[in-house]
Design brief:
The complex is a heterodimer of chains A (554) and B (316). With 554 residues, chain A is an alpha+beta fold. Chain A is 27% helix and 19% strand. In chain A, helix 9 runs antiparallel to helix 11 and helix 16 packs antiparallel against helix 17. Chain A is globular and about 75 Å long. The chains are: A alpha+beta (554), B mainly alpha (316).
Chain lengths: 554, 316
């Protein structure tokens, strides 16, 4: 750049205006570069539903590693052999029946399985769905080159045999009752398309999937939305709407604003924040309901830390949590208090567990009796260990941060020091969480996989990742009796017998307190008036689990 | 000219190399990583996570990962996104159009209005207009953009219902008019800050030119003020603006993070934030290299353009 100038500039005002005009024109021409939306060729289904999501669905191959938000798409485009209904009962989907030991679908020893399929199902491209597709799907999951989501359960399957186009059998390496539920979240993929792909991880299918579901893939505008159209050949009931759109709105406040302004018809993950509930209820033309979720919000205690090895400390801390105040004052009373990790909607939820009582005097007494004596700074200590610890959660979650500050104050009243050390999600849920590097953590966590009551991955000694285990027992909880019960539960098919087992697991865990339950989060789901057929189902991870049944009231 | 170009190009390559090494190392040193998104999923066991790590090539030494990435980049392969498996250039391309639309229109508004305010402020120095423009620019620069965005949504969308609360277009209506309707609020909000910057620069540049001898000569010759302004002042005052525009051009292509989030605009700024949130290394590195190349290129072009327009600057 120069400070000197001459009048002989070659750059005139007219040139500048010309450039600006060209820029402006380019801006208005650009939309045409984005491509035109596809339209359904079906006549019956009418209207469209726009679902708002706060994370972007990006993984469309349903067997690849993915997160909860992708489920919304998988449930609409694909089908599994079974489906978990809102009551937590397995219903046949692509399978003609749910195999049991009574109907002979599963052998008495639980090792040999036989699956019968429907004969009227077609892929979106018109090809028939057969037992070969099921075999291909199950084998793809355990293909070592494939970036599969969960392999647990599937890795036990051996000798898959296609008996006929509508029947197949396999043998299990060991008895694993939860596998039935796992199959309810294992969506079938087409063999005739994927077998031609050299690398299943980068197949074209992954960007434009072909399923058997109620909706067909239409188009995706990355970073914005994706669009599905009705599948008129769908074998099940529905679909009644012509187009299903998943709109990505990253900011929770903006998501709520767009629900208010009518841009979205239904709020799926992460729903409406609790602090907007009171206002949302009063919105004209909107139906806002509270739907129990499947997770538990709790304080995880890293049981390998000396402070938390003493059960008295865990009991005292639990007694010092004013859960009602937290729920009412911070979460506007929308959540449910619970004593267990098992969701209330589950058949296996134990309702007879002792209720926590907020009592600071009792908390102090427990600590006094256990020999935790206040030091000169007011913080208790025993055998050289100060009763001090850090609590971590994802930064930026203002409601959780308020809970932390609240707990910090009440814990201080019983001589316990809690410091707050939060970090971004990508850091928090990495090794810090998985390898139990935290003192204590505040997290909303689900324990069940595919709504099966088996919680081995979270509670079994062999699942402690920090000790080389295979699961996500990040509290490093270890109790031989619980281990034995979990092993027995996974080998038992009879629901009643299983209920007894998991009731006992819940009793022991309630007593041991490896985590301090705060509440069972409730989702504030908003939808536009007139949208019918929507049904909550806390046994699935998405509010859009059954879009096939949605319709607009005419 | 050739010597100048070769010199600048070689400097640029070294710069890009340094940026890529620092970017790669810093990104990979951050704790967490792309698999942290599965941390809360009870079905993902440590074994599953280790397997994914190996499949994504994340278990190799950092230097090996870098060399592999850099070698492929040189060959034109920018890698695949960890999140959706699409090629990085495709991912960037998909978001670039949205960003061009928003940033392009806001830049046009900002330059047009900012230039006018700046020139008028300089020619009517210490007038009510000048004071108003100065205070206005201060306000626009001190208040965060998202605040303007939220106020705009509250007033024009929720209360008056004149403009959409966000999104690039109404799904199902791909008409140019619909895009235009959605473009109005975010581009004006985004333009506010840039109008302020442009008007301040333009005012200074115009004042600078006005005090030059050739303007005095023109006045002495009896030319009208309007003619002096149009013929002698504006063109010269715009000259330093070319460098400013050159410096701002990369930001036009890399997006506006906050505005895009508030208005649910699927542009580059949001892509960067999302990719960082998921530790999608290939995309983050792709965006980093994309903007680094743009900065280098735009500066180079600005230098050349200024030199061509102003013959007293020698490229050598």
């Amino acid at each position: 750049m120069t400070k000197d100038s001459t009048p002989k500039s070659g750059y005139s005002r007219r040139d500048a205006l010309r450039l600006m005009a060209a820029g402006g024109l380019a801006c208005f021409a650009a939309p045409n570069l984005l491509g035109k939306p596809a339209f359904a060729d079906t006549a019956n289904p009418t209207g469209r539903v726009v679902v708002g999501l706060s994370q972007e669905p990006t993984v469309f191959h349903p067997l690849m590693a993915h997160i909860e938000v992708d489920d919304a798409v998988h449930f609409s485009v694909f089908d599994a052999l079974f489906r978990m209904d809102p009551k937590g009962v397995l219903q046949p989907n692509l399978a003609a029946e749910v195999p049991t030991q009574q109907n002979g679908g599963i052998s008495e020893d639980g090792l040999n399985w036989r699956i019968r399929l429907r004969d009227d199902v077609r892929w979106h491209d018109g090809e028939p769905f057969t037992a070969e597709d099921v075999k291909f799907t199950l084998e793809l999951i355990t293909n070592p080159n494939f970036r599969a989501w969960r392999t647990g359960g599937h890795s036990l399957v051996r000798d898959i045999t296609v008996v006929s186009p509508t029947e197949l059998t396999w043998r299990m390496e060991e008895v694993f009752a939860p596998y039935l539920s796992f199959l309810a979240e294992t969506f079938m993929v087409p063999k005739h398309i994927l077998e031609k792909e050299a690398d299943p991880n980068t197949a074209a299918f992954n960007q434009a999937p072909v399923g058997t579901g109620a909706f067909k893939w239409a188009q995706r505008v990355a970073g914005d939305h994706l669009e599905l159209v009705a599948n008129p050949e769908y074998f099940g009931d529905g679909p009644y709407i012509e187009r299903l759109i998943f709109k990505y709105i990253p900011d929770m406040t903006v998501l709520y604003t767009q629900f208010k302004s009518g841009d979205i018809d239904l709020t799926d993950q992460a729903y409406i924040t609790a602090d907007h509930y009171e206002e949302a209820k009063t919105l004209p033309g909107r139906v806002v309901t509270l739907q129990p979720g499947a997770s538990l919000e709790s304080i995880f205690l890293n049981l390998e830390k000396p402070q938390f090895k003493d059960p008295a400390v865990r009991q005292a801390l639990y007694a010092a949590i004013d859960r009602n105040a937290i729920n009412d004052a911070i979460y506007y009373g929308v959540n449910t208090l619970t004593e267990t990790f098992m969701p209330k909607a589950s058949y296996y939820h134990n309702p007879k567990l002792p209720a926590q009582e907020f009592n600071l005097d009792r908390a102090r007494k427990i600590l006094d009796e256990a020999g935790w004596v206040p030091g000169p700074d007011g913080i208790r200590a025993k055998d050289g260990v100060r009763l001090s610890f850090a609590n971590s959660t994802t930064s930026g979650n203002n409601l959780r941060e308020q809970v932390q500050q609240f707990l910090q104050q009440t814990f201080a009243e019983i001589g316990v020091e809690m410091t707050i050390s939060n970090m971004p999600a990508a850091v928090m849920w990495g090794d810090f969480w998985l390898k139990s590097q935290f003192d204590s953590a505040m997290a909303g966590v689900t324990y069940l996989i595919a709504a099966d009551p088996d919680a081995t991955n979270r509670l079994h000694t062999s699942a402690i990742g920090a000790k080389g285990g295979k699961g996500s027992n990040t509290a490093q909880y270890s109790n031989p009796e619980v281990d034995a019960l979990l092993e027995k539960g996974a080998r038992t098919f009879d629901p009643e017998a299983r209920r007894e087992i998991y009731y006992r697991v819940q009793e022991i865990v309630r007593e041991d307190l490896p985590f301090l339950p705060l509440f069972a989060p409730t989702n504030v789901v908003g939808r536009k008036e007139g949208l019918e057929g929507w049904e909550p189902n806390s046994n699935t991870r998405t509010a859009s689990w059954h879009a096939a049944g949605w319709r607009w009231q005419s | 000219m050739r010597g100048f170009l070769l010199n600048r190009l070689s400097q640029s390559l070294v710069l890009l190399l340094i940026v890529s090494v620092i970017g790669f190392v810093v990104l990979n040193l951050l704790p967490g990583g792309p698999l942290a998104q599965f941390g809360l999923d009870p079905s993902m066991t440590q074994d599953d996570l280790n397997r994914l790590k190996e499949q994504l090539g994340l278990n190799r030494p950092l230097w090996m990962q870098y060399l592999d990435w850099a070698w492929r980049l040189v060959q034109g392969d920018w890698g695949h996104s960890f999140r959706d498996g699409a090629p990085v250039l495709d991912v960037i391309g998909r978001h670039l159009v949205a960003t061009l639309l928003l940033m392009g229109s806001s830049t046009v508004i900002a330059i047009a209005i900012g230039t006018w305010i700046g020139i008028r402020g300089a020619t009517h120095r210490y007038s009510a207009f000048d004071y108003l423009a100065t205070v206005g620019a201060m306000v626009a620069l001190s208040i965060p953009t998202f605040w303007f965005g939220l106020i705009g949504i509250y007033v024009f969308s929720l209360q008056l219902g004149w403009l959409p609360a966000g999104n690039m277009y109404t799904i199902g209506d791909g008409s140019a008019l619909n895009y235009l309707h959605h473009l109005i609020m975010p581009s004006i909000v985004l333009a506010l800050v840039h109008v302020a910057i442009w008007s301040r620069y333009m005012r200074t540049a115009t004042l600078d030119v006005i005090s030059q001898d050739f303007v005095k000569t023109a006045r002495a010759k009896g030319l009208s003020e309007r003619r002096i302004l149009m013929k002698h002042v504006v063109g010269n005052a715009l000259l330093p603006m070319i460098t400013l525009a050159g410096m701002q051009l990369p930001s036009v292509l890399t997006g506006a993070l906050v505005t895009e989030t508030v208005f649910t605009w699927p542009g580059m700024g949001r892509l960067f934030l999302d990719s960082l949130g998921y530790s999608d290394y290939p995309v983050v590195m792709g965006l980093l290299m994309f903007s680094a190349i743009l900065v280098v290129l735009c500066n180079l072009i600005a230098d050349i353009v200024v030199a061509i327009i102003d013959p007293r600057i020698r490229l050598s």
